[in-house]
Amino acid sequence: MAIVGAGIAGLSLAWHLNRAGKCVVILEKSTRADGASVRNFGMIWVVGQPAGELQSLAFRSRDLWQEAASEFGFWIRSSGSLTLAYEQVEYQVLRECMGENRGAHARALLSPQDIADRFPFVRQEGLIGAMHSPTEAGVDPREVVHMAAGSLSSKGVEIHFDTTVTKIVTGRVEASNGEVFLADKIIVCPGPTLFSLYPDACLRAGLTECRLQMLRLQPWSKDIQPLGVHLCAGLTLSHYANFRNCPSLPALKERHRRKWPRQVEKGIHVLVAEHADRTLTVGDSHSYGRSLPAYRDDSTDEAILDAMDEFLPRSRYQIVQRWDGTYNTHTTEPYWWESLGDSIWGLNLFGTGMTLSFGLTERLSQQLI
Q1: At a CB cut-off of 8 Å and minimum separation 6, what does 256 contact?
Q2: I want to staple 46 with a disulfide (CB 3.0 to 4.6 A). Which of 23, 39, 125, 135 is the partner?
Q3: What's the whole-model pTM score?
Q4: What is the pLDDT of residues 69-120, one digit of tens each?
Q5: DSSP per position, 318-342
Q6: What are the chain's domains?
Q7: Minimal CA–CA distance to 4: which of 40, 43, 36, 30?
Q8: Could you tell me what percentage of the chain is helix, strand and coil, using 3-state DSSP and rounding each to the nearest 5?
Q9: How many CB atoms neighbour CB 288 within 10 A?
């Protein structure tokens, strides 16, 4: 089988197929994967998925991430998450979410005193409460795809970097350097490059691009307490499907339009992920379309940090890196899987790649075997 793209979708699919004894070749246009799979938070964000199939898939993916970490040797932490409320309507949405998922997954509402006792680094001014979830995990996206590629290579998966695919037909993949790869089944999952290979299919499916801005911070001092937990606050409640059925969500969105006009305009909701070296990945903004500006907007970074400052004082950290990310997305679907021809399929994971990847590709690998 041939897989086009060595991001987390292609690598996790190759892992499942290799475990099933299948012969797999991966073709990657870059000298090493440098797309959406390395430009994200590294969060396995179960709490954001709605109850039902997607949440079950996220849980399965989290368990498989643990297996893959043991096999590939990369760092992973069962960090859990803390969703903080600084407005009454935010706390009401959390209460409604807890009611809809009553008793689910050991999630709990915490009082300000609970938070002060357990998470003293959180800003207390104006804090009303939080939802604590123990189900989330974290990896460093900058290391997992590279370590996974190295491990898969040692297990017999043939990986060709710096190989730009130009043509795909049944049983055959052609590259710009003249190489030809024969395969009985071909899975195309190159992230945004999918538009270059299959523009008509992408447009028919309603795919578009999302561009985001992100930052990496590090503490000014070693004395600053580690977090040990993923953090987010009220703006995030408008972003994830797990909260979309909460009756108070419209009132929350209206409150945020008044309180956070810059953030709402730029599609900002703030997540904070801590890595093994104590650096933080913080973001992000969201701009949608196929013809987005080529430049970064410093005011967007400031808006991200201003929103973070409500719950985690920005004065404790310095910016060490800034970057853009790009991925394909859809207005309603969490991922895309479609036949593109006889024994050719397209796969795109949108913004849920780290959370759903291993679980989804396990399911798809079973269809392919």
Answers
A1: 234, 235, 238, 263, 264
A2: 135
A3: 0.94
A4: 999 999 999 999 999 999 999 999 999 998 866 556 789 999 999 999 999 9
A5: EEEEEEEEEEEE-SS-S-EEEEEET
A6: 1-80+136-207+332-369 (3.50.50.60), 84-134+208-329 (3.30.9.10)
A7: 30
A8: 40, 25, 35
A9: 12
